[in-house]
Specification:
single chain; alpha+beta; eight-stranded antiparallel beta sheet; globular; DNA-binding
Length: 197
DNA sequence: CAAGTGATTAGC
DNA sequence: CTAATCACTTGC
């Protein structure tokens, strides 16, 4: 079952980021096979007040426009000249909240992932936001894709026990001044596919 | 630990 | 228009 629209349009992005743990991210291939992974690490970004968010201070440009869309939309952008990053837009239209998916545990289509990440160990397949996009075949063609559509979606998976959730500061946002230490990164405790220990 | 890579952004 | 930056990964 795909997660319903109401899952994404909730107003508390931190809550949605936690709830996304242990859900299943699915991308079908052109030949109709499924590549999928269990979400084990997320980060919440709460524009416009969050200095770390691309939509900080109401910044609304060609790239960030996607974040102003309806909850349940994919926000995929390109960084460091090499990598795509997959995010989930939350909240209602015109409130630019989003959640970065930082790590997955591979669960379906392992053969396809291994081919796309040739020479990498099992743990390196999807343990990082750039890595998982390569393994899943996610690129900017999926920016603005509806997560209730058929190009990329998230299924219920399992709901996670609160005891299994850890939280801490977000990664790679040293520029974010007083927002950089907020514990808005969530992960599944002891899961070996989390991007950093 | 630092290079690499090019889209995006701010600032002129 | 130009220059700096970047929600990262890899190989040294």
């Amino acid at each position: 079952m795909k997660l319903p629209r109401e899952f994404y349009t909730r107003s508390d992005v931190l809550k949605v980021a936690r709830d996304l743990l242990c859900r299943k991210l699915v991308v079908p291939t052109r030949s109709g096979k499924r590549v999928a992974g269990i979400i084990v690490e997320t980060e919440a970004y709460r524009g416009p007040e969050d200095r770390a968010s691309h939509a900080w201070n109401g910044r609304r440009t060609n790239r960030t426009e996607t974040m102003y869309g309806l909850g349940g939309t994919a926000y995929v952008y390109f960084v460091y000249g090499m990598y795509n990053q997959f995010n989930v837009v939350t909240n209602v239209e015109n409130i630019p909240h989003a959640i970065l998916i930082r790590a997955l545990e591979p669960i379906e289509g392992l053969d396809i992932m291994r081919r796309r990440r040739k020479g990498r160990s099992e743990y390196e397949l999807t343990s990082g936001p750039g890595r998982l996009c390569i393994a899943m075949g996610i690129d900017r063609g999926l920016d603005k894709a509806d997560l209730l559509g058929d190009r990329v979606w998230i299924e219920e998976g399992l709901s996670v026990s609160p005891r299994k959730i850890a939280r801490g500061p977000r990664i790679g946002i040293d520029y974010a001044e007083n927002w950089k230490d907020k514990p808005w990164r969530f992960w599944v405790k002891d899961n070996p596919f989390v991007s950093r220990k």
